[in-house]
Write a structure and sequence with these properties.
single chain, alpha+beta, Enolase-like, domain 1, 5-stranded antiparallel beta sheet, 4-stranded antiparallel beta sheet, 12 helices, 11 strands, globular, disordered N terminus, binds flavin-adenine dinucleotide
C-alpha cells in the first residue's frame, strides 16, 4: 500500500458552499490556498431560453433546484435527483458546481494517513481492501464510484457544461471515462464551472429517479438511476438510462436503453432491458450485490414510466 505524503492536495481549491471542501480541510487532506467563489447573475439561479431550455448557474443551491416548479415540470429527473441527495441542511447550502466537482467519498481517499492514486500514491488500496461500497463496473485503476448524483441525472439529459474557459462540454468530457484513476474530474487547474445548459425537453417525455441506499437518508447511494423516455402509441422512444454509484464515472446503460428503443412498452421488453442493465459489469469481490440492485432499479423505474 502506498503511503500518503503530508501535502496530499496542495493545489488551490475553490470553495462554493464548502460542504465537501471544509471536511477535507479539517482532516488535513486539502492544504493549499482557498479561492472563495462569489455568485454573479451568470452563476446563480435558473434561466430559461425561448425554446424552453434551462440554464442553471453553478452556484445555484441544490435545494433551489429541488424546489423549482418549472424545472420539475421540464426536467423531473433532475428535480428528483436533487430532492434525493444528502440532507435538507446540505441541500440548502451545497451548489450544483460543487456537487459536480466534489471529491471521492472513498474511505481510503478520505483518510489522510493512507495513500491512494488520487493523492499521488502508486495504487488503489480499496482494490485489495474493503470495497463494499465501491464500483461494480471496474473501468480503471481506482475503484471508487463517482460521488455526484447531479452528474448522473444531468447525463440522462445530455446536459452541457460551461466553464470560464470552455463551453459545450459533455458530462463525459468533464468527468472522463473512468480510466484516469488520479482525478475525480478533468477540469484544468483553476478552471471554474460557470453553468449547466440543458436541451429543451421533448414533447411528452417522462423521467424518474431512484436510489438504493443503505440507510434512509444522509448517505451516498449504493446505486442510483435516472430513466427518461417518450412513449408514443405504446412504444418506447428516446430512451435514456443513466446510473451512479457503480463506476468511477456516471454511466449510460446503453444496452438497456437499446433494448427498449422502438419496442412495445410491455413486461417482456422491460424484463429484458432490466437484465441487460449489467452488460459490461465487472464487479469486485464485495460488490456483486450492486448488480442485483441495478437490475431491480431499472425494472422498477421503467415499469413505472410505462404505466
Ligand atoms: C451526509 C451527506 C450526504 C451526501 N449525499 C450525497 C449524495 O447522495 N449525492 C451527492 O451527489 N452528493 C452528496 N453529498 C455531497 C454534497 O452534495 C456535496 O458536498 C456538495 O454538493 C458540494 O457542493 P459545495 O458547493 O459545498 O462544494 P465545495 O465543498 O465548496 O467544493 C467541492 C469541490 O468542488 C470544487 N468546486 C466547487 N465549485 C466549483 C466550480 N464552480 N467550478 C469548479 N470546481 C468547483 C471545489 O474546488 C472543491 O474541490 C452528501 C454530503 C453529505 C455531508
Amino acid at each position: 500500500m502506498s503511503v500518503a505524503t503530508a501535502d496530499v492536495i496542495t493545489a488551490p481549491e475553490f470553495r462554493a458552499a464548502g460542504t465537501d471542501l471544509s471536511e477535507r480541510r479539517r482532516s488535513g487532506l486539502s492544504c493549499g490556498s482557498v479561492i472563495d467563489l462569489t455568485a454573479s447573475p451568470d452563476t446563480i439561479g435558473i434561466a430559461w431560453n425561448a425554446d424552453g431550455a434551462a440554464r442553471i448557474g453553478a452556484l445555484t443551491a441544490i435545494a433551489a433546484i429541488a424546489s423549482d416548479a418549472r424545472l420539475a415540470q421540464a426536467y423531473p429527473g433532475i428535480t428528483a435527483a436533487a430532492q434525493g441527495l444528502a440532507t435538507p441542511q446540505i441541500r440548502h447550502m451545497a451548489t450544483l458546481g460543487g456537487n459536480l466537482a466534489q471529491r471521492s467519498r472513498c474511505w481510503y481517499f478520505r483518510n489522510p494517513q493512507i495513500g491512494c492514486l488520487k493523492k499521488g500514491g502508486s495504487d488503489c488500496p480499496a482494490r485489495s481492501g474493503n470495497h463494499l461500497y465501491h464500483v461494480a463496473f471496474d473501468l480503471g485503476p481506482c475503484v471508487a464510484p463517482h460521488p455526484s448524483t447531479m452528474a448522473m441525472a444531468l447525463l440522462a439529459y445530455d446536459a452541457k457544461i460551461v466553464t470560464d474557459r470552455r463551453s459545450g462540454l459533455s458530462i463525459a468530457e468533464v468527468l472522463g471515462d473512468g480510466s484516469n484513476g488520479t482525478a475525480d474530474n478533468l477540469l484544468a487547474p483553476g478552471e471554474r464551472i460557470e453553468r449547466i445548459e440543458l436541451p429543451a425537453p421533448l414533447a411528452s417525455e417522462r423521467a424518474l429517479y431512484k436510489r438504493a441506499i443503505s440507510r434512509t437518508h444522509a448517505e451516498w447511494p449504493l446505486v442510483e438511476i435516472c430513466v427518461r423516455a417518450v412513449i408514443e402509441g405504446g412504444v418506447f422512444r428516446e430512451v435514456h438510462i443513466t446510473a451512479g454509484g457503480i463506476a468511477p464515472v456516471p454511466l449510460r446503460l446503453a444496452a438497456s436503453a437499446a433494448a427498449l428503443q422502438g419496442k412495445p412498452a410491455d413486461a417482456a421488453t422491460i424484463a429484458q432491458a432490466a437484465e441487460l442493465a449489467t452488460s459490461g459489469a465487472k464487479p469486485l469481490t464485495m460488490t456483486g450485490y450492486k448488480l442485483d440492485l441495478l437490475r431491480g432499479l431499472v425494472r422498477d423505474l421503467v415499469e413505472r414510466i410505462a404505466a
